[in-house]
Design a protein that fits this description.
Number of helices: 10
CATH topology of the largest domain: Aminopeptidase
Number of domains: 2
Oligomer: single chain
Distance between the termini: 27 Å
Mean pLDDT: 95
Structural class: alpha+beta
CATH architecture of the largest domain: 3-Layer(aba) Sandwich
Low-confidence stretches: none
Radius of gyration: 20 Å
CATH superfamily of the largest domain: Gcn5-related N-acetyltransferase (GNAT)
Order of helices and strands: EHHEEEHEHEEEHHEEEHHEEEHH
Helix content: 25-40%
Strand order of the largest sheet: 1-2-3-4-5-14-6
Number of strands: 14
Shape: globular
CATH class of the largest domain: Alpha Beta
């Protein structure tokens, strides 16, 4: 068995492998490769038996907001082993290999979505994410022009990127999106149902949604600083959703959204949604003023926030599903 990085010429074989193991389509994995401006074949770790890829782990190279500052992060995804090769420790070895890769690339922290024991054994710690559920009535309004995002308009995308940056840095775990190619390719593909709220030619906020099982899920949300100053943009959030529901010709819909936004902890239902797991890789890669805080537990650090950005809510930990891997 050979453990190593994927060779560039093996990309198609790797796509065959992950499509074989998972239920998602080949196009899904292809999009996650080709639409990723930070992709690195060295970050795809593989176990190869007789020239066949039998197990793999991919490290997605990103940056995330942590107490208002960007830090480097390695997202662990596409952990997959062919059924006939399971229970041989291949995934464990590849996780160890990915940790070494992240150390060599000066990555501060690693994150993944899951809760299997294999991850906690290798040092990842579970941090819950809280989701609110609330029913919104469909209702048209006159204050904003609420319409689908035009991903072909570079000026519009620049406005969204600016709103995203100032809003998302208020939380911990949201990804930094400092490459416009990520907006044009990844965000456009992963959040096709995105809507803007425009007034006097200026976009003051936006939201991305998805319909599922008669519900509406919020994939991400952002509001201007002016709107945020008004009760955390709660009223704007509700007006935006109500208008979209009306445009969908629905009378009302239950909406699921990250509880830290729009006063979600006061919603009728608040639940944990799986978990996100984190592991500190390189403490020295954190900003100097944060390093002493690493002695606290990761859940405490991720649910709390710096004083300059602190809100009166129970958690500041969010991961936008648009960035899912």
């Amino acid at each position: 068995m050979e453990f190593r990085a994927l060779y560039p010429e093996e990309l198609e074989a790797w796509l065959d492998h992950v499509t074989h193991v998972f239920s998602a389509s080949r196009q899904y994995f292809s999009n996650h490769w080709h639409n990723d401006p930070w992709k690195d074949a060295q970050g795809i770790r593989v176990a190869v038996d007789d020239s066949t890829i039998v197990s793999t782990v991919r490290v997605f190279i990103r940056k995330m907001f942590f107490h208002g500052e960007p830090i480097s992060v390695g997202g662990i995804g596409e952990v997959s082993t062919r059924p006939e090769y399971r229970k041989r420790g291949l995934a464990t070895q590849l996780l160890k290999d990915s940790i070494q890769f992240m150390e060599n690339h000066d990555i501060a922290i690693s994150m993944l979505h899951g809760g299997q024991r294999i991850y906690s054994v290798e040092g990842w710690e579970s941090v819950p994410r809280y989701y609110a559920k609330k029913t919104f009535l469909g209702k048209k309004q006159q204050e904003w022009n609420i319409r689908p995002v035009n991903f072909q308009d570079t000026d519009e995308i620049a406005q969204l990127a600016s709103l995203y940056h100032t809003y998302s840095r208020k939380f911990n775990g949201t990804f930094v999106r400092d490459d416009m190619a990520y907006w044009r390719d990844w965000v456009k593909t992963e959040s096709p149902q995105a809507w803007v709220a425009e007034r006097d030619g200026v976009i003051e906020g936006y939201i991305s949604v998805r319909g599922r099982n008669g519900q509406l899920g919020v994939k991400e949300f952002a509001a201007s600083e002016e709107l945020f100053a008004q009760n955390g943009a709660t009223d704007f959030f509700e007006v935006l959703l109500s208008d979209i529901i009306a445009q969908m010709d629905a009378e009302k819909l239950e909406v699921e959204y990250p509880a830290p936004i729009a006063d979600g902890f006061n919603a009728p239902k608040v639940e944990t949604y799986g978990s996100t797991m984190y592991r500190v890789i390189q403490p020295d890669m954190f900003p100097p003023n944060m390093r002493q805080e690493l002695s606290d537990t990761l859940p405490d650090l991720l649910h709390s926030q710096s004083e300059t950005l602190k809100q009166d809510i129970q958690s500041h930990h969010i991961f936008w599903p648009t960035d899912g891997f």
